[in-house]
Write a structure and sequence with these properties.
The protein is α/β, with parallel strands linked by helices. Helix 4 runs parallel beside helix 5. The longest helix has 24 residues. One of its GO terms (molecular function) is acyltransferase activity, transferring groups other than amino-acyl groups.
Length: 353
């Protein structure tokens, strides 16, 4: 009888992040910029302190660049191109490491921070000597959940071409779109968002070898599209974020998880590692309460929120990197990656360590 070859699955080969060199604590950015911008917003300092963010990284120094007032979107995108080439490029180079670059067949990237053509992915691929036949996919302006369509694209590419490697990158430079609109919603947003890039290299490996991406699920909560947005204005991109978002996510998370986990014969109680996008402390608290998870079960999400802030689409990849670095997941344990963004859209991927 001919032995049956083990099933091959999309598998994490490496992951690496990079951040801009400038790091500021909440106190430093408040005293250097927000104290003046939001002086007429009651309790602005307390609002920023309550975000759960201790420090963040910045693609530029907004205390200097925006001290004299607002800047046009074109000027902001020029900074995105310059800084992104450096920081995103560092993340991709670190993730590739000693992997055979001739086997890289596809490069999928997302950002919500800037647009240019050719994109950063082309310049980085050229600089790193990747094959000229590389297939590039850019996912733009989908919001904080955009790492998931990037990962799904990589999963599909690996399934179709199992002998190739795929680069999956999320890069966010949200500080490039700070603005001085003095209202409480913008104080919350300016207190949360930071800058970072993170890259996954995915390949195909036999079942059970390495961190494997088993399946994904997406839900569009069509009736809640007005609760979160990320739109272009003359002076940059601007976000709106309703305080009702944490309650809506908590209301729908059980049904979402049933659809993600049920086809694999799993329930929430079977999940050892929760890799939840730390959109803010209220989101983590609401989901933790609904799922009956104490703070230790979401340690990596809280850590990333504290040390990086909400880095948009990059954040859930930073959480994955932190889990692998610090939580020592054991072979065979399950994890759920979850993210949320405008729509409201809820995304999830089931992984097995």
């Amino acid at each position: 009888m001919t032995p049956v070859a083990p099933e091959r699955r999309p598998t994490l080969l490496s992951i690496a992040s990079a951040v801009p060199p400038l790091s500021l604590t909440q106190e430093e950015i408040y005293e250097g910029l927000f104290k003046d911008w939001f002086k007429n917003v009651p309790n602005a300092q307390r609002i920023i302190q309550n975000t759960g963010v201790r420090r963040r990284f910045f693609a530029w120094d907004p205390r200097v660049e925006l001290k004299k007032g607002r800047m046009g979107v074109g000027d902001r995108v020029r900074v995105y191109e310059r800084v992104g080439l450096q920081v995103t490029g560092e993340s991709v180079q670190k993730a590739l490491g000693e992997l055979e670059r001739s086997r890289v067949g596809a490069f999928t990237m997302t950002t919500n921070s800037g647009y240019s053509g050719p994109g950063l992915d082309l310049y980085i691929a050229k600089k790193l000597g990747l094959p000229s036949s590389i297939r590039r996919t850019f996912v733009g302006h989908m919001g904080c959940f955009a790492a998931f369509p990037v990962l799904r694209t990589a999963m599909d590419s690996v399934a179709a071409r199992p002998d190739e490697y795929v680069i999956a990158n999320a890069s966010e430079y949200s500080s490039l779109h700070y603005h001085d609109t003095p209202d409480p919603e913008q104080v919350v947003i300016h207190g949360l968002f930071g800058d970072a890039a993170c890259t996954v290299v995915m390949g195909s490996a036999p079942d059970g070898e390495g961190v494997q991406f088993l399946r994904s699920h997406t839900e569009q909560l069509y009736d809640t599209h007005e609760l979160m947005g990320w739109n272009m204005h003359n002076d940059g991109f601007r976000m709106n974020l309703s305080p009702y978002v944490p309650f809506v996510l908590a209301e729908h998370v059980d049904d979402f998880l049933e659809k993600l986990l049920g086809p694999e014969g799993l329930k929430a109680g079977d999940i050892k590692h929760w890799l939840i996008h730390p959109g803010g402390p209220k989101i983590l608290e609401g989901l933790g309460k609904q799922l009956k998870l104490d703070k230790s079960r979401m340690r990596a999400s809280w850590h990333v929120l504290s040390e990086y802030g909400n880095c948009g689409a990059t954040t859930v990849l930073l959480v994955l990197e932190e889990v692998l670095r610090s939580d020592n997941p054991q072979r065979g344990e399950y994890g759920v990656m979850m993210g949320f963004g405008p729509g409201l859209t809820v995304e999830g991927i089931l992984v097995r360590f």
